Amino acid sequence: MIDIVCCPTPFLVGLLSSSLPKLKDLPVEEALMVNLGSDRFIRQMDDEDTLLPRKLQAALEQALERKNELINQDSDSDSDDECNTLNGLVSEVFIRFFVETVGHYSLFLTQNEKGERAFQREAFRKSVASKSIRRFLEVFMESQMFTGFIQDRELRKCRAKGLFEQRVEQYLEELPDTEQSGVNKFLRGLGEE
């Protein structure tokens, strides 16, 4: 697996710490390396502290701290129920994060005269009131993750509703009509900007 680390494609790879000396000799370009055993960065990109707005990052960290409360409970930490609870908690935090940062995307999918759906990128980004969130979206909208997400939505013929789409629908229904065009509320329940 160590050779795969040199591939310029976004992915998450786990390596044994015994492979670290070999890894340091490879031509790895843009990679964030973390020693999960010691919770330390081995190599940083120098944008980690600026990518997410501070209040957004703090809200995510605060929500994820609840996992520590679950781990520290007196119950058996290896039980399936607790593992499912932890997985559910982490999943919910990130689903909520993405719903509240990009969940309004569907308001900016328009149909052209040929019946093709097209995403209005700049209008989507500008619809966010928070300057720091707009800066985050500028970077995030250039990622392969976001591009693939939007391309999938543009090409979809039927609208199958997975968990994310269900949460987006709920989120948009909860927004007052006056906010749907500007999407002014962010991170309700996670923190405020």
UniProtKB/TrEMBL annotation:
Protein name as annotated: ST5 protein
SMART domains to which the protein is assigned, alphabetical: dDENN
Every UDENN domain range: 1-160
Transmembrane intervals: none
An example Gene Ontology molecular-function term: guanyl-nucleotide exchange factor activity
UniProt keyword Protein biosynthesis present: no
Residue ranges the record marks as coiled coil: none
